[in-house]
Structures are given as C-alpha cells and as structure tokens.
C-alpha cells in the first residue's frame, strides 16, 4: 500500500511540475496578438468616433437645433430625453485606445502618432465636456495603469486649459519624427497627412478659444495663431476638411445607409431649415430635403418642413400626413429610402471643415477679437466653401445644382450689411446651415451664441426651454457616486437646464 501511495504522489508531482513548466507556453494563443501597433488602433478610433458623431447628429444634434424634426416617436423633439449616453460611451470607450496610442508613441518616440493622438484626445474630451460640463479628465482612463477606478470630475475650465495645451503640443510634435503614419483613414496617412493634422490641431484651437470667449479674453491667443501661419497653419480650403469619406461597400458605408426605412423616415426636414433656406433661395435646400410626394398643386416641386416639438398625433398628421412633408435629402438617405437606391458613400463623417473655420474667423473679426483679415471676406468664404463642398460630393444622377443665383450674395438676407448684431446673426445662421450633420457642434455653438433663434415646439416637455446639456449617466451614481455628486454640487442640478461653465 505504501509503495502505491508513493508512486501516485510522484506521478502527481511530475504531472504538476510538467504542466507548471510549460503553462505559459501552452496557454499562449499564437493567433491572438497581445500587442497592437499604433496604426491599427488609429484606424479603429477614427472609424468608431466619427460614426458615433454621425449617429449623434441624427438622433439628437439635428433635432435640437432644428435642422430636422420628427413625425413619429417624437420624444427627442419634445425634449423628453432621459439619459443620452452616446457621447459619454464613445469618448471614454475610445479614449482607452487613444491612450494606448499615446503610450506606444511615447515609448517609441513616435512624435507623429503622439501628435495625432493628442488631437484626438482634445477633440473627444471637448465633445464630452460640452455635452455634460464637468467630467472625468485628469484621472480618466487610469484604471489599468494606476488603478484609478473612481476618477474625479475636473471643472470645465480645467478641461479646456488641458485641451488647448494638448492641441498646442500636438502642433509642435507633428513632423518632428521619421515614422510614416499608417492607419489614417481620415487624411490618408503618409508624410502628406501631417500638415493636415497640424491644420486640424490649430483649427480646433480656434474652435475651443471661441467656445470659451464669453468667459475670458481670447483675442491675443486667436491673433497669435493667425499672425504666424508657418508655425500655426490652419485650414485653408476644402482640401483640408477633416471629413471621413466612406466606402461604397459594407461595412464602411455611410452609417445610416443600412437604417430601416421606417426608422429613417421618422426624421424629416424641419420647418426652421426649409423656411430659412427658401427665404433666400438657397441652392442647398435640395441637398438637405426632398420635395414632398403630394404637393399642394399637382406636378409642383414643393418643399415643406415640419415644425419641431409637435405631439405624436399632430406631427404625424401635419400638412396632410407624411407624404406632405419633406424627407431628409437624398445625399444622406438609406438604402431603401428611395428608388433608385441612393449612392452609399455620398455623405461624409465630419470632424471639422474649412467653412466652419471661416465662420469662426468672421465672428472673431466682427467682434474685434482679431485684427487680421475682413469679417465680410471670411463670412463669404464660409458660405462658398460649404456650397462647394456639396457641389463636389453630390453625384450628377441626383440632378441637384448647388450653384447660387447671381443675386444670392447681394440679397438682404445674405449680404454683409446691417448692424454688428445683424452681421453676427448672418454669420451664425450660415454657420448653423454648414454644421448640419456635424454631430452636436451646432447645438454647442447655438448655446454659446443664441444664433439662430431656436424656439421650443408647442408640445415640448421641458417648460418651454431648449436643453443646454445632457444629464450624467445613471451608472455614475453607483460606480462613481462621490465624484459625480461633487461635480453636481459645484456645477448645479443634474438636469437638462443647468448651463455649463462656458455658457454661464
């Protein structure tokens, strides 16, 4: 008996020792990488974040600033929002890989990738703080590296200081190392993309500075960028646009191309958009909206927008029903939303455009925050740039001519005339048009300027107030309650009507 026990024990020890000696080798799957290079991370981050930007524009951004309105399931249009976690989840989910790029680039002294990652970090955190106000920033994305599972919420003022610093650093880093950038599906990668990333960095600085311009004097910072174009290049034409071009084949088509027709057609052109563009005979109207199927006179090409904020029944019955209301324009349509089927890669996924930069400069010049250039020239450049953008992407088979009439720029509604406030209203309104489908940017900008007028619909559920922020995700109450509560105590009630720091 004793010898049998010894034999069994020896065999057990031998087996255990053998497994232990080769444990790591046996459990290492050679087909699953344990490290990913920066280029592979970059392409995924760009695709995910820009697609999220498009989806947020569709679901909330276009609605709240009244580019579009709804005829069914109208809660969003009536401000019955509840949680809107899309921005939060997109920013913090994708920041993990942005931080991985930063770590890899820092270790490998790859300044080009590091500069790009800092641009993306700045852009993403600007989306988060503009949507919610105070958010985790300094301690964010540190759970794996330093064990911070409950990050503190930084003030928006602190976050914007960090954003501006990172964009400045990105401009300094880009082009100072030799690695060839790959995985750049936004600008194409290679050496030629670096100057475009620098231009995006400095253009985003212009946007950020204007965002906080009601809280501090940003004139000297804006002027410094414009004074030294060699050091601080900004977007100079539509060729510099940070807009993702989609592919004709799945899975990298326009994100809404695969939408169900019913879900897509819940959204229609807003009366605010249609009426404003019709009043100035704007050639972009057919880009943004389609003629109604049942016009008031047979055979007439007629565009009718629906008022925002109607209840379910009045929305569905407006102007005789869905066939009497303009659908969203064909360039943005889904596969089954028209016949013949729309081209799957007409629309773009925007981060920022040259047109927006020109409107920023027009406002800055009109307010005498800068001394470079002419406000009128910047303003007209912005309009022309947006029209030229659509001229370039709308296919000939759509038969849409985005060429303004000879009198377009001289008519009273467009000509750069009037008081300073009237000029600012023209700048802001044209900027509002150009920001269609650019995520939540039109909403952020409207909250800062109040231009153009956005009036809550008659059946709104927010006491006749347009929301000015998102509420924090409910999960933060249980997972990070103390820090979330400190932010609420500092910022104000966690509801849709509490203005963020730059909006107070």
Automatic annotation (TrEMBL):
SUPFAM superfamilies: TPR-like. Signal peptide: none annotated. Keywords: Lipoprotein. The keyword Transport does not apply. The keyword Lipoprotein applies. InterPro entries: SusD-like_2 (IPR041662), TPR-like_helical_dom_sf (IPR011990). Pfam families: SusD-like_2 (PF12771). This is SusD/RagB family nutrient-binding outer membrane lipoprotein. It comes from Spirosoma terrae.
């Amino acid at each position: 008996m004793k010898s049998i026990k010894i034999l069994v024990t020896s065999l057990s020890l031998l087996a255990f020792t053998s497994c232990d000696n080769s444990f790591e080798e046996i459990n290492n799957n050679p087909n699953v990488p344990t490290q990913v290079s920066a280029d592979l991370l970059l392409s995924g981050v760009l695709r995910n974040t820009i697609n999220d930007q498009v989806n947020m524009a569709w679901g909330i951004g276009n609605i709240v600033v009244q580019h579009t309105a709804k005829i069914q399931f109208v809660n969003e249009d009536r401000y019955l929002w509840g949680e809107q976690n899309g921005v939060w989840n997109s920013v913090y989910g994708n920041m993990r890989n942005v931080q991985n790029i930063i770590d890899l680039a820092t270790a490998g002294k790859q300044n080009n990738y590091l500069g790009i990652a800092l641009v993306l970090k700045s852009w993403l955190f600007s989306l988060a703080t503009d949507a919610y106000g105070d958010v985790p920033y300094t301690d964010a994305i540190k759970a794996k590296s330093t064990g911070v599972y409950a990050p503190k919420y930084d003030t928006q003022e602190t976050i914007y200081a960090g954003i501006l610093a990172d964009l400045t650093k990105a401009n300094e880093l880009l082009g100072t190392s030799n690695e060839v950038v790959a995985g750049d599906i936004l600008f194409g990668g290679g050496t030629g993309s670096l100057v475009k990333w620098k231009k995006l960095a400095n253009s985003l600085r212009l946007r950020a500075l204007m965002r906080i311009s009601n809280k501090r004097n940003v004139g000297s910072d804006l002027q410094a960028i414009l004074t030294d174009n060699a050091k601080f290049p900004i977007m100079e034409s539509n060729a510099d646009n940070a807009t993702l071009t989609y592919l004709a084949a799945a899975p990298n088509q326009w994100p809404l191309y695969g939408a169900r027709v019913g879900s897509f057609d819940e959204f229609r052109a807003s009366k605010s958009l249609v009426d404003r563009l019709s009043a100035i005979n704007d050639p972009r109207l057919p880009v943004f909206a389609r003629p109604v199927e049942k016009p008031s006179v047979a055979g007439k090409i007629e565009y009718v927008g629906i008022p925002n904020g109607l209840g379910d029944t009045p929305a569905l019955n407006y102007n005789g029903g869905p066939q009497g209301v303009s659908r969203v324009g064909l360039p943005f349509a889904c596969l089954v939303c028209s016949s013949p089927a729309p081209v799957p890669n007409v629309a773009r996924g925007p981060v920022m455009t040259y047109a927006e930069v020109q409107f920023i400069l027009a406002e800055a010049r009109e307010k005498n925050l800068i001394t470079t250039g002419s406000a009128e020239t910047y303003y007209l450049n912005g309009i022309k740039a947006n029209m030229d953008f659509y001229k370039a992407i709308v296919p000939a088979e759509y038969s849409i001519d985005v060429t303004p009439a000879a009198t377009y720029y001289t008519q009273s509604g467009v000509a750069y005339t009037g008081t300073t406030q009237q000029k600012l209203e023209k700048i802001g309104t044209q900027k509002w048009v150009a920001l269609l489908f650019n995520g939540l940017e039109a909403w952020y900008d409207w909250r800062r300027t109040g231009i153009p007028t956005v009036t809550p619909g008659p059946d709104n559920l927010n006491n006749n107030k347009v929301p000015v922020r998102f509420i924090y995700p409910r999960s933060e109450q249980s997972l990070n309650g103390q820090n979330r509560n400190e932010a609420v105590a500092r910022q104000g009630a966690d509801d849709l009507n509490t203005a963020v720091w730059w909006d107070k």
